[in-house]
Amino acid sequence: MSTRGWTLFAVLGLVWGIPYLLIRVAVGDVDPLVVAFGRTVIGAGLLLPLALRRRALRPALRAWPWLLAFAGAEIVGPWLLLGHAETQLTSATTGLLVAITPLLAIVIAAGVGIERLRRERAWGLIIGLAGVLALVGWDIDLSNLPAVGAVVLAALGYAIGPMIISRKLAGVPPIGVITAALIIASLVYAPGAAIVWPDAWTVESGVSIVLLGVICTGLAFVLFFSLIAETGPARATVITYINPAVAIALGAAILHEPISPGMLLGFPLVIAGSVLATRGGTRENRAPSVNAPALPQTEVVR
Question: pTM to 2 decimals?
Answer without folding.
Answer: 0.85
